[in-house]
Write a structure and sequence with these properties.
The complex is a heterodimer of chains A (113) and B (113).
Chain A: E1 4-7, E2 10-14, E3 19-25, E4 31-37, E5 43-50, E6 55-58, E7 61-66, E8 71-76, E9 85-95, E10 98-103, E11 107-112
Parallel strand pairs in A: 2-11
Antiparallel strand pairs in A: 1-3, 3-8, 4-5, 4-9, 6-7, 7-8, 9-10, 9-11
Chain B: E1 5-7, E2 10-13, E3 19-24, E4 31-38, E5 42-50, E6 53-57, E7 64-68, E8 74-78, E9 87-94, E10 103-104, E11 108-112
The chains are: A mainly beta (113), B mainly beta (113).
Chain lengths: 113, 113
């Protein structure tokens, strides 16, 4: 079962605009990660934010985490056509010495020229 | 290119058959994870191995099994295949057993007819 929901399910914007995606999850977490997936291909890790962090930046990406609301957001600034992809949040939880990543439902982003 | 390799890229087989998917982790990574991605279930964690030992288990069916060999490559065996097993199967790797970003392979697309 999915850990959480992502909102919106799909987002279409013009190149140069900012894109914001939200992720909500259900249980307590250790870290939250964001991944990108181009159509039918492998996932690419974007950023990891720890449960004791509130905000993190990486290039044009900004991630926030609110553990009290069990939610995170991913902001992509100055979007490009190459940013067109599906974006997933994933929460990890320590389990018996291993690490179980639970993915959200994903947001499909389309950036138009 | 994440450095994780998966073979084969595509696999088409019939119901009731057995297949083996293979994964080689990034050089230096000791953990291997298997995920299933389907339209109805989304991305589901199946199982994790760390340095040859099972570390975490997810929604893996009893018909499915995996192992990690001394050279750290891993195989996922799917038996008594059903139509609903058609999906993309991803392998990912990380250095440690916990709290790591995971590097995903390109996936194996399994079609069961």
């Amino acid at each position: 079962s999915q850990q959480g929901e992502e909102d919106p399910q799909a987002l279409s914007i013009q190149e140069g605009e900012n894109a914001t995606m939200n992720c909500s999850y259900k249980t307590s977490i250790n870290n939250l990660q964001w991944y990108r997936q181009n159509s039918g291909r492998g996932l690419v890790h974007l950023i990891l934010i720890r449960s004791n962090e509130r905000e993190k930046h990486s290039g044009r990406l900004r991630v926030t985490l609110d553990t009290s609301k069990k939610s995170s957001s991913l902001l992509i600034t100055a979007s490009r056509a190459a940013d067109t992809a599906s974006y997933f949040c994933a929460t990890d939880k320590l389990t018996g010495g291993g690490n179980k990543l639970t993915f959200g439902t994903g947001t499909q982003l389309k950036v138009e020229l | 290119d994440s450095g994780v390799t998966q073979t084969p890229k595509h696999l088409i087989t019939a119901t009731g058959q057995r297949v083996t998917l293979r994964c080689s982790p990034r050089s230096g990574d000791l953990s291997v994870y298997w995920y299933q991605q389907s339209l109805d279930q989304g991305l589901q964690f199946l199982i994790q191995y760390y340095n040859g030992e099972e570390r975490a288990k997810g929604n893996i069916l009893e018909r499915f099994s995996a192992q990690q060999f001394p050279d750290l490559h891993s195989e996922l065996n799917l038996s008594s295949l059903e139509l609903g097993d058609s999906a993309l199967y991803f392998c990912a790797s990380s250095f440690g057993p916990t709290y790591n970003e995971q590097f995903f392979g390109p996936g194996t697309r399994l079609t069961v007819l």
